[in-house]
Design brief:
Elements lengths: L25 H16 L4 E3 L9 E4 L9 E19 L9 E14 L5 E7 H14 L10 H16 L14
Antiparallel strand pairs: 1-2, 2-3, 3-4, 4-5
Bound molecules: ligand GNR and nickel (II) ion.
Amino acid sequence: MDTLKILHFPDPRLRQIADDITIFDQELKDLANKMLVTMYESKGIGLAAIQVNIKKRLIVIDVSEGRNEPIFLVNPVIYDKSNKVQSEEGCLSVPGFYDKVERFNNIKYKVTDITGKVHDREAEGLLAICIQHEIDHLDGKLFVDYLSELKRDRIAKKIQKLSAQGKLPSRKSVPYSI
Ligand code: GNR
Ligand code: NI
């Protein structure tokens, strides 16, 4: 299956606000599966549609060791967060850069599944952190936005330079996910 192209910071298309999904058809399932394949190939634990230039509130996640427990989130909304933690994060749209950001270890959220059914769920730990990171994407936000402007600008310049040289680091050859 063909994979989707992932946009890289500071691409302004990553700043768009994604739209709610209202139609639950085969096309949505096909897109979700394509995103999942792209995420697995890129060695990520999550991927938001906006990262592949699709302005929809769709997220795929797999934080399992075996990489065989995919989760699809449509129109997720967090309504409760607790227990602040420091999280060491990376992002497929910010290749090669990692830094600490503040997240919450526990969340409660409402989410629609791929068939259109609404659920009330809780998550903790890495899954909770990943959901927060991915919902930020749907709102045009990246983990680098929590860093200083100086750090963010340096990262933007380095990515642009490496990209122009065709030297952006890729996780594709790495046998584990970060
Ligand atoms: O692969 C990823 N790892 C990760 C690590 C810590 C916190 C969040 C993430 S998500 C990231 C994949 C990605 O960029 N999703 O948008
Ligand atoms: Ni990301």
